[in-house]
Amino acid sequence: VGVLLWEISSGRPPFYVKGKEYGVSLAINILQGLRESVIPGTPEYYVNIYT
User: Fold this and answer.
1) What domain range is 39 assigned to?
2) What is the pLDDT of residues 5-25, one digit of tens each?
3) Measuring CA to CA, which residue among 15, 40, 38, 18 is closest to residue 28?
4) Exposure string (b/e) for 35-45, b if CB count within 10 Å is 16 or more?
5) Do residues 49 and 1 make contact, with C-beta atoms less than 8 angstroms apart?
6) Domain total of the chain
7) 5: buried, middle or exposed (CB in 10 Å: 19+, 13-18, 0-12)?
């Protein structure tokens, strides 16, 4: 749910870099706690779900 809320508030998929494919290293980094930055203006209840 958190990923969906982040995508709605940012207007793009999490960790998106144009022309770059997702890899195993990204999955490992996410498992180790990597998170996207909070988008300014995002409702606090969204932030509480995805952080």
Assistant:
1) 2-50
2) 888 888 988 888 888 888 899
3) 15
4) ebeeeeeeeee
5) yes
6) 1
7) middle
